[in-house]
Amino acid sequence: MNTLFVEAVGLMAPGLAGWTASQAVLAGQQPYVAAPMPAAMATLLPANERRRVTATIKLALQVAQEAMAQIDLDASAVRTVFASSGGDSEVLDKICTALTQPDRPVSPTHFHQSVHNTPAGYWAIATSCMQPSLSLAAYDGSFAAGLREAAALAWADQARVLLVAYDLPLPAPMAGHRKIVVPFGVALLLNPAPPANRLALLRLTSSRNEPADRLDDEGLEHLRSGNPSARSLPLLCAIAQGAARQVILSAGDSATLRVEIDP
Amino acid sequence: MAIKPLAIAACTLTNALGPGIAASLDALRRGESGLRPCDFEDVVLNTWIGRVAGLEEEPLRGEFAPFDCRNNRLARLGLEQDGFGAAVRQARDRYGPDRIGVFVGTSTSGIGATEQAYRQRDLITRSLPATFDYRHTHNVFSVADFTRRWLGLTGAAFAISTACSSSAKAFASAWRQMRAGFCDAALVGGVDSLCLTTLYGFNALGLASTRPCRPWDVERDGLSVGEAAGFALLEWAEPGDDRVLLLGYGESSDAWHMTAAHPEGAGAALAMQQALARAEVLPAQVDYINLHGTATPLNDAAEDRAVVRVFGSDTPCSSTKGWTGHTLGAAGITEAIFVSLCLEQGLIPGTLNTRQRDPKLGAGLVLETRESPLRLALSNSFGFGGTNCSLLFGRRVRSPSPRVGEGRGEGVA
Q: Taking CA atoms, what residue in B is nearest to A116?
């Protein structure tokens, strides 16, 4: 029961402009070149909504949208798990700033966008998806926790799950208190049953105190260690390489997640 | 086939009614509300709140000092009640500390610490105080991290943050994570504490009442923000188990609007139907529904439509928000434990503060608390972003057989 198929991937990070464009770099066939992350377009949002939403929402929706575009499937049928260490710090910064001012004028829009499940809500609305959705956080282990929950949900319901992990550097006053140095977003479409086209087969096992994988490439390791969602990179590299491998992902403190990957 | 049930092996509850389960049960029986005019910090808002007394004077110390903030103080106060720590220690010995998963719901975690830090910004550099510890206070995971450390648990842990359905969904995650074999037992919980963000935020949205909240009342005009901590230890039920069991859960998304519930309660109905379906229970078999019932005009109307659609108008239901206020990310666990107490005690709480039922609403609202043997009870939790979760709990009763086949509303088999 502990197997899971990866059907599609979405990716957005500095020097990694989408999964398709990044596979050669992640497979080690091309050098990684750091470059500013392209603006997340999140074109599935209506134009008026796109103007109102934040960079965090757009990043989450962009990678989710990219993954779903790779297969012929109605997104309204797909369950979702959203994982993020800190949610939308830009919005939280605006609220906390407003709370220092006379009469504390918190914007109603900022308040409703401040919940951790805001990207999940916008995604559900944009795709007319009434399926279950979970938004979770586990600090630097957020991606591994999200993968575990996405797997558990896929197995329990015998249904596809879209896992979306995203984090942005925090705005100025909070930045010095939380080390997220690069933006990173990733989405994996997971299927508990063998799909027509698969990118990889995963086997998950909870473990403890295993040393988490690092990356040989300095630039990619800078991403991996600089963003909780980028802790997924060893897994993404293994998928891109298309070889049988095992990676250990940090699930926070002593908890680790062992992922065996078969092409 | 119905899903394998989970048993509540131990639980604890702290809210405006007081620390520990007995305080809640007493107040439920006596009809005494925990709400009071807002006296939180220096807030100047004409609204009522459900505040837990004494948190201001009880900092976390020693190895837990980095976690010190109102939310984790509330978590600690909760964990100290009802012999809960001892029950978890026994479970830890039985299952092993790395085999008990920790799934804690919260909406704002310790954002109060960041609110304070922003008010103490350096006038020149604009920096936050060096003592500000984002990771252990404000970060969403902080309360789950604190909880597992306090209890000495080392296995899978994450915080669930889906606004006001957070700690209801913790039960669903626990079931899944246990079924997947990632853990053998689960510690679920919910902790949300008063902060300026939610008080001023709900006020800005025009959703905070100037009076104690009145769910389903014809004059209802908004919610009362509360705070609470609740925890439950879950393990697989044994044959003939006479503890309160989680028999089913249902989750859905409205896919409608970020803050307004779907007017027909379509997502809410779906969540209730799935909870019934997972348990293989018919709507007519359910003896009591604890409503989300925040007392905002639109939320209650939407939930009412959903309840009537699934259950008809005869199933007794009530909102207990008049006792505790809306405890947001802790509402799911608070009301799950209320339901579990109702099943054990044979109690149907009324809907406190509600005087005149809105004639436009059709659910079987109970106004006065009454005794009644219960076998199956449902708890609803819905939140911003259109997130819905319903939990079905049950308890074996020795006598009469269930009323199978008397389905009303839309049958779920």
A: B161
Return the ∠ at Cα B289 (arms to B393 and A122), rounded to 5°: 90
**What is d(CA A140, CA A255) in angstroms, rounded to the nearest whole number?**
11
A247 found inside a domain: no
Running DSSP on this structure, what letter comes out for residue A75?
G
CATH of the domain at A92: 3.40.47.10
* Residues of B annotated as catalytic (active site), given as ranges: 164, 292, 326
* pLDDT tens-digit readout, B277-326: 999 999 999 999 999 999 999 999 999 999 999 999 999 999 999 999 99
To which H or E segment does residue B302 belong?
helix B297-311
Neighbour tally for B2: CB within 10 Å: 11
Q: Which domain holds residue A64?
A: 3-197
Burial A240-259 (b: 16+ CB within 10 A, else e): bbeeebebbbbbbbebbbeb
The tokens of B130 are what? 């060096």
Residue A136 to residue B157, Cβ atoms within 8 A: no
Nearest Cα to B412, choosing from B309, B334, B325?
A: B309
Name which of B381, B375, B300, B353 is nearest B107 in CA terms.
B381
CB spacing of A178 vs B115 below 8 angstroms = no
Q: Could you give the number of structural domains in chain A?
A: 1
Query: Cα separation of B260 and B262, whole Å?
Result: 6
Q: Could you give the maximum distance between any two Cα atoms of chain B, in Å?
A: 73
Structural domain tally of chain B? 1
Is B115 contained in some domain? yes
Residue A34 lies in a domain: yes
- Give the contacts of B124 (CB within 8 A, at least 6 positions apart): none
From chain B, the residues in CB contact with A174 under 8 A are 114, 128, 134
Tens-place pLDDT, residues B364-400: 999 999 999 999 999 999 999 999 999 999 998 654 4
Task: Give me the residue from B127, B158, B201 closest to A173, CB to CB.
Answer: B127
Q: Alpha helices of chain A — where are they, by DSSP H?
A: 19-26, 47-52, 55-69, 89-98, 108-113, 118-127, 142-157, 172-175, 218-226, 233-241
Is residue A208 in a domain?
no
Beta bridge partners, B290, equal B318, B379
First to last CA, chain A: 18
Give the span between the Cα atoms of A165 and A186, in whole angstroms.
5
Chain segment B32-81, per-residue pLDDT in tens = 999 999 999 999 999 999 999 999 998 999 999 999 999 999 999 999 99
ipTM: 0.97
Q: Determine, yes or no, domain membership for A105.
A: yes
User: Which residue does chain A place closest to B180, by CA atoms?
Assistant: A152
In a domain, B1, yes or no: no
Q: Look at A136 and B114 and tell me if their CB atoms are within 8 Å.
A: no
Geometric angle at alpha carbon B78, from B12 and A255, rounded to 5°: 95
Q: What is the largest CA-CA distance in chain A?
A: 60
b/e per residue A109-147 (b: at least 16 CB within 10 A): bbbbbbbbbbbbbbbbbbbebbbbbbbbbbbbbbbbbbb
Mean pLDDT for each 10-residue chunk of chain A (263 residues)?
Answer: 92 97 97 94 89 95 97 96 97 98 96 97 97 98 97 98 98 95 98 95 92 95 97 98 95 87 95
**Residue of B227, B228, B269 whose CA lies nearest to B252:** B269
* Count of beta carbons in the 10 Å neighbourhood of residue B355: 10
For A22, A63, B246, B268, the CA distances from A200, given in Å and listed in that order, are: 16, 18, 35, 36
Alpha helices in B135-227 (DSSP H): 142-151, 166-179, 196-204
